[in-house]
Design a protein that fits this description.
The protein is α+β, with helices and mostly antiparallel strands. The chain has four domains: about 10-135, Methyltransferase, Cobalt-precorrin-4 Transmethylase, Domain 2; about 140-200, no CATH class; about 210-375, Heat Shock Protein 90 (2-Layer Sandwich); about 380-475, Winged helix-like DNA-binding domain superfamily/Winged helix DNA-binding domain (Arc Repressor Mutant, subunit A, Orthogonal Bundle), CATH 1.10.10.10. About 35% of the residues lie in helices and about 20% in strands. The protein has 17 helices and 19 strands. The chain has helices at about 10-20, 35-45, 65-80, 125-135, 150-155, 155-165, 175-180, 190-195, 235-250, 270-280, 325-335, 345-355, 375-380, 395-405, 415-420, 425-440, 460-475, and strands at about 25-30, 50, 85-90, 95-100, 110, 110-115, 120-125, 185, 190, 210-215, 225-230, 250-255, 260-265, 290-295, 300-305, 360-365, 365-375, 440-445, 455-460. A hairpin with a 2-residue loop joins strand 12 (about 250-255) and strand 13 (about 260-265). It is elongated and about 110 Å long.
Length: about 475
């Protein structure tokens, strides 16, 4: 096994000791007293180095009989459960015991579990052992029993029928047997995965298991325009969040020979994949919830918990390690996720096909944020007339409404939208303003700087003549 802690030659020992004891370094004056505890603690952390023959103050006192001590160190390491691989080497008068990072955690010694905390090794309490198991992915929270869920009280016929329909289960199955076969109940107790899917309010069982969606003005969180907390069952939360994003993002109406198609500014399938990944892979023990933030220039999906044990940032799009495998399996059955490990790849490919920027994925210790860049510039460019021939098709009623609203005034796009009671900027650009400009009915006040923040619009002579004709015809 390759060590992350190289054995240092004697001329470097003094500078190494000068760093003092810490998270990855321990000094022992002599012998093997409590050595099993130290080795175990390093094995349960990120590895470390134990220098035997060095006093607590860093003074080298040295040891005798290196060969005999090496044998005892190896024997102690092998007596751990499971055995711990260590490297033992003499560095001058000091015996250096290197504990590489281990991959069969957790380790115990003498029936007890130890962990490295700062510069000391501590025995783990029951709660710490439980937390350690969760952190290392040895226990999955979604598979643990949810004692707050009462099968007789909470599993109504409507809730059960909903699961049957969503999961494609045969009608008429015995509930207890079906839930047991799906592993959603164990020993007649609902698991958390089952509780999250078979409920009307998920916060009754896990307080922060919902999803919060919010729209902000501009590019910061200073001014919030809208917020909604979704707390039903996880499938309903997913659907509600998708509906929210679709409502708050811009939708363009693209004319064609058979009518018009709605075109969401970001690919719906990519948003679905990113949202379901956040819900399926989040850490449900976290005191935070999944958050969807919509800014002027981007959409963020923020997932609490960081990456699950066994995953590295470079693994994204290559492999998948579900933090909640039972829940993920149910999502797969419900058709919400594709094959394991394909999510990130699919998102990136969908964005490429949609001709928008691929999302940026930021990984921190306790958070994973997926950021989609909104194609704001594409929308703004359409004011300049840089559009396809399809978009130039005139929509008479909408152009007339724009002309009557504008009248003799000079207005910005924002002022016009306010007057007309329109909230979706792309619809206003595609269906109202752009056709009017293309037909020479409306003109810019600063035509050489079409994207100027001071840009306004006014009716042309041709537009005024058309208005007069419309008024005469209606009189």
């Amino acid at each position: 096994m390759t060590s992350n802690f190289p054995i240092l030659p004697s001329n470097f020992l003094s500078s190494f000791i000068a760093l003092g004891e810490g998270f990855t370094t321990e000094f022992k004056r002599t012998g093997t007293s409590n050595l099993g505890r130290e080795i175990c603690a390093f094995a349960n952390a990120t590895g470390g180095v134990i220098l035997i023959g060095v006093a607590d103050d860093g003074k080298i006192v040295g040891i005798r009989n290196h060969n005999g001590l090496k044998s005892r160190v190896q024997s102690i390491a092998r007596s751990a459960e499971p055995p711990i691989a260590v490297e033992v080497e003499s560095v001058g008068k000091v015996l250096c015991v290197t504990v590489p990072e281990q991959h069969s955690k957790p380790y115990s010694f003498g029936g007890k579990f130890f962990i490295r905390e700062g510069a000391t090794s501590q025995q783990m309490s029951r709660d710490e052992i439980r937390e350690f198991f969760f952190k290392e992915g040895l226990i999955h929270f979604d598979e643990t029993p949810c004692f707050d869920y009462d099968l007789a009280r909470d599993l109504s016929p409507e809730i059960w029928d909903r699961l049957v329909k969503r999961s494609g289960l045969p009608v008429g199955l015995d509930k207890q047997m079906a839930l047991s076969n799906l592993h959603l109940i164990k020993k007649s107790v609902m698991t958390y995965a089952g509780a999250w899917l078979l409920c009307t309010d998920i916060t009754r069982y896990t307080l922060r298991a919902g999803v919060t969606c919010a729209v902000f003005r501009g590019t910061t969180k200073t001014h919030i325009l809208d917020r909604k907390d979704f707390t039903g069952d996880l499938y309903s939360i997913y659907e509600d969040c998708m509906a929210y994003m679709q409502a708050k993002l811009n939708t363009a109406l693209i004319p064609h020979a058979r009518g018009r198609d709605e075109h969401l500014e970001l690919p719906e399938d990519a948003l679905r994949e990113a949202l379901v990944n956040a819900i399926a892979h989040r850490d449900y023990r976290s005191t935070a919830n999944v958050q969807v933030h919509i800014f002027h220039d981007r959409l963020e999906i923020v997932t609490p918990g960081g990456l699950p044990a066994g995953m590295r940032e470079e693994d994204l799009g290559v492999k998948s390690v579900p933090r909640n495998p039972l829940l993920f399996g149910m999502f797969y059955r419900m058709g919400l996720v594709e094959q394991i490990g394909s999510g990130i790849r699919r998102i990136r490919q969908i964005c490429r096909d949609y001709r928008v920027a691929e999302p940026v994925i930021e990984v921190l210790e306790h958070w994973v944020t997926t950021t989609f860049k909104r194609p704001v510039e594409q929308v703004e460019d359409q004011i300049t007339g840089e559009v396809t021939e399809q978009v130039t098709e005139q929509v008479t009623e909408q152009v007339e409404r724009l002309l009557f609203t504008l009248g003799k005034d000079t207005c910005s796009a924002h002022e016009l939208m306010d007057r007309m009671g329109l909230s979706h900027r792309p619809t206003f650009l595609y269906s109202y303003l752009q056709p009017a400009i293309q037909d020479g009915l409306v003109e810019m006040t600063i035509p050489d700087k079409p994207r100027s923040s001071k840009q306004k619009y006014r009716i042309t002579a041709k537009g005024k003549a058309l208005l007069e004709e419309i008024e005469e015809a209606s009189s």
